[in-house]
Design goal:
Number of domains: 1
Oligomer: single chain
Order of helices and strands: HEHEHEH
Distance between the termini: 39 Å
CATH architecture: 3-Layer(aba) Sandwich
Helix content: 25-40%
Strand order of the largest sheet: 2-1-3
CATH superfamily: Thiolase/Chalcone synthase
């Protein structure tokens, strides 16, 4: 298991965060990259993060010609990646599988920040959307509908 440092990481791109978490995970597992048989990458929203494929994972980690799969399921994306990796090992399709999730959410919709480099459609599809923002709108609508005090 590995994890990148949490916080406003303006000086880092998504691939830097992937490498940081991966380096820690590989050391914790005591394995080498060559032992990984398959990998899953999770992101919440492709237009705002690393794109529509798992290629950024394979490139950032220099994975050796193994199948890589990208999953997206909003807040459950990491769980979906872990589930895919677990199923691969449980089924015997892989001896060692990697599940990695990454987000680079700061700066949504702001030019000159990470968001401008986080996806092919960032300026066309919901450039200011975020999971917390969406949930806040749902909470506000629920409050209004059910007459709940703020």
């Amino acid at each position: 298991m590995g994890c990148s440092k949490f916080g406003e990481r303006w000086d880092k791109e998504a691939d830097n965060l992937m490498v940081e978490a991966y380096t820690e995970a590989i050391a914790d597992a005591g394995i080498d990259t060559k032992q990984i048989d398959a990998a899953w990458l999770s992101t919440a929203i492709e237009e705002q993060h690393v794109g529509k494929s798992a290629t950024p994972l394979a490139v950032a980690l220099r994975l050796p010609f193994i199948p890589v799969t990208r999953v997206e399921n909003y807040c459950a994306s990491g769980t979906e990646a872990l589930r895919g990796a677990v199923y691969a090992v449980a089924s015997g399709a892989a001896d060692v599988a990697l599940a990695l999730g990454v987000e680079k959410p700061e700066g949504y919709g702001l030019r000159g920040t990470a968001a401008a480099r986080c996806g092919p459609l960032n300026d066309m599809v919901n450039p200011n959307a975020s999971a917390p923002g969406s949930f806040a709108q749902l909470a506000a609508a629920y409050r209004a509908k059910h007459n709940v005090e703020p």
